[in-house]
Amino acid sequence: MPAAVVTGLTAALAAAVGGRGPAGGALTVGAVAAGQLSIGWCNDRADMGRDRASGRRDKPLVTGEALPGVVAGAAIAALALCVVLSAACGPVAGCVHAVAVAAAWSYNLRLKRTVLSWLPYALAFGLLPAFVTLALPGGPWPPLWLMAAAGLLGTGAHFANVLPDIDHDLRTGVHGLPQRLGRRRSVCVAALLVLASSLVLLVAPDGPVTRQGWAVLAMTVLLCALALLRPVRDADARLPFLATMGIAAADVAHLVLLTASVG
């Protein structure tokens, strides 16, 4: 997911749980924003050779608008700022966020090309609700089901995110799990993972199922059917991607509402 989306999700979660005031919430969001910037710039620098070989004119490192050393330095500076801001949220919260960001860096530098490409997404997204709640007074951990749902959502987003670029990735030496499975099976895996996330959010919390939960499940089933029944070819690659992202957006909204109730 783009850095702005992850940062926005963090802001929504922080606002939902409250408890720290505007300054505390801004500190949490700032730590995540710095981490996301470091991850993005690290990825751009790590992919520079592939992007140049593919003629990616949308990449500043390919067009010469940005220098490799500057991008690498910016990534390290953003990472250092992330560490400082995360530590200011509390020692346990800071360590949790450090693990999440380290997982994302490991994806950029190595794991994206392996069968374990999904693991950093599962870990980083699963830890995001924990970072938000651990930064609260008293440092409570969120329920395990909330972390599991976030991890499933993040892993599903990984499979969906690579759909439009699978062929390009294979030509340039990226053989993560979605690329190994191929576009058709990756669509199925992405849909099943976000559906599983929706089901966890529906049945795991205490109390009766809410109307919002049923609405999210209905939307999830509809979009899963759209993604799975449509033939998946190069020209259609963005349709299942967008359908899966639509499910993810509904899950995120449900996740925020549930976080508010357990925070």
Automatic annotation (TrEMBL):
Gene3D superfamilies from the xrefs?
UbiA prenyltransferase
Q: GO cellular component terms?
A: membrane
- The transmembrane segments are 70-103, 115-138, 144-166, 187-205, 211-229, 241-262
Mode of membrane association: Multi-pass membrane protein
Q: Which domain of life is it from?
A: Bacteria
Keyword vocabulary terms for this entry: Membrane, Transmembrane, Transmembrane helix
Q: Where in the cell is it found?
A: Membrane
The UniProt GO MF terms for this protein read: transferase activity, transferring alkyl or aryl (other than methyl) groups
InterPro entries reported in the protein's UniProt record: UbiA_prenyltransferase (IPR000537), UbiA_sf (IPR044878)
Protein name per its UniProtKB record: UbiA family prenyltransferase
Which species is this UniProt entry from?
Streptomyces marianii
